[in-house]
Amino acid sequence: MRLVRLNVHPLKSAAIRPVGSAAVLARGLVDDRSWMLVGPDDRLVSARELPALFRVVADTPATDPTVSSALRLRAVGHRDLAVDLPGGPEVLVHLFSLDLPATPAGPEADAWLRDVLGTDVRLVWCHDPTRRRLQPGFSSPADHTAFADSFPVTVASLASLRRLDDWILERALEEGEEPPEPLPVERFRANLVVDGDEPFAEDRWAEVRVGEVRFRVAKPVGRCVMATLDPATLRTAKEPTRTLARHRLVDGRTLFAAHLVPLAEGTIRVGDEVTAR
């Protein structure tokens, strides 16, 4: 197998940032999901609630070497905004059922995002990922991450996506629907995209090595409504949830891709050999 794509998401739910290489830390890829938006109640605001967030481009020096600030925000029709690492007092924010410490970015960033998105949000930074515990039963006490939904890293397989696309086409023909275009793998917002194994071989993996960096496979990814949202049109559709529910429904969850936990630190690169056992 090979690593064919590598993605970092500095701002949770914002535009995917493809990179050629990435440093891997215990908390995941450097700068991945280190920032997120919260509403007036300090709860996560993601593209589930605010699809336009997909069109906000957030970069750091790890995703664009021309960036000289901690974070740069861009949106069509708006000036770029450079955001420095905040140093104020921490607050508690709510990521689903978790209460996590974070540091607010400040009023300038909040005003910029309100102007772009048209709603009341605040930008916060995860200043200490080591204080985030992961799902019991699938992690060790030392495992941690920033604002990812569940685990530090996700991996998706193009072989599995091709099989899913075949199933989606079969279902459309059964229902008398227009044959759909294949789904882009970006729908699943994985950090690592691999190719070269059998479809859904990742279900059987216990450990993955990318280049010289090892990862433990924690569990499959249960997909949410985000996978039904087209980042180009911002419209939702029945797929892939409808077809995943037919072929990949386990304990009430539709499964695609896998969660990983780094077992070592290092640098991974597009083109790296990937081995799994």
Automatic annotation (TrEMBL):
Pfam families: MOSC, MOSC_N. InterPro entries: MoCF_Sase_C, MOCOS_middle, Pyrv_Knase-like_insert_dom_sf. Residues 121-277 form the MOSC domain. Signal peptide: none annotated. SUPFAM superfamilies: MOSC N-terminal domain-like, PK beta-barrel domain-like. PROSITE patterns: MOSC. PANTHER family: MITOCHONDRIAL AMIDOXIME REDUCING COMPONENT 1, MOLYBDOPTERIN COFACTOR SULFURASE MOSC. This is MOSC domain-containing protein. It comes from Nocardioides furvisabuli.
